[in-house]
Amino acid sequence: MEIQRDELAAGEGDPFKGDPNFMASLARGLEVIQAFTPQRRQLSISQISQKTGIPRAAVRRCLYTLGKLGFVYADDGKNYQLRPRILSLGHAYLASTPLAKSTQPVLKHLSEMLNESCSIATLDGDDILYIARASSSRIMTIDLDIGSRLPAWSTSMGRVLLSYLPDEQLNDFLGRITMIRYTPQTVDSVSKLREELKRVRQQGYALNDQELEMGLRSIAVPLVNPDGAVVAALNVGVHAGQVSAQELRSRVLPKLQEAAQELSLLLK
């Protein structure tokens, strides 16, 4: 769940105001952590405050506490970075999730067979969260690894996951997202996205043709548990100059679907 960007303890419009069980200080600390991204690895107190809406004095206290606990540091005393210990916060989830633990061998085999990068992601808020990945080469300008996040609406795995949401949840999602035209290929309206999601649901896969980044094509299919619920998505990403959209459908999709069936057997 995304933490609301306001003064959580007493800010106007705070959805948790008056809830005696809600720890505003903990929420602020978590939002400070989430302010760091692969594109912004170093942030000052004022930059974090501007990005999160948390007052600078509160950001300073959060960073002081996180620093004492070994989660952040600032060599120059001004520009903060996350420390490797931050990985321990996600390790418990990844270590306890059967999907994340058991899929790596299948992903590795699929990646080697196709000589392409393969990933598994779940829906987390309005983003997809990468929980497993086997990479044959770097095909994006940003690094992707376990724990990486991307906007769900603009990715093949995200569209697969969104297409299986109940209507009420999907309508809520479409009503709050901000669509960015990443490339000339990007779907640029909610109505077009809604139609694309219907198509994805009907055909059972999503193909993203250079909508997130020029030169990148990807195709994704759902991972279904024994109860018939879609719990994650599996995709293959390729260089657009090397693999056409038609080849993705004819050569890659059948292998992807076979791997998805195998992975589904592991979902308890």
From TrEMBL:
Example of a GO MF term: DNA binding
SUPFAM superfamilies xrefs: GAF domain-like, Winged helix' DNA-binding domain
UniProt domain HTH iclR-type: residue ranges: 23-84
The entry's keywords: DNA-binding, Transcription, Transcription regulation
IclR-ED domain location: 85-268
Coiled coil spans: none
One Gene Ontology term from the biological process aspect of the record: positive regulation of DNA-templated transcription
Protein's name according to its UniProt entry: Pca regulon regulatory protein
Organism, scientific name: Buttiauxella brennerae ATCC 51605
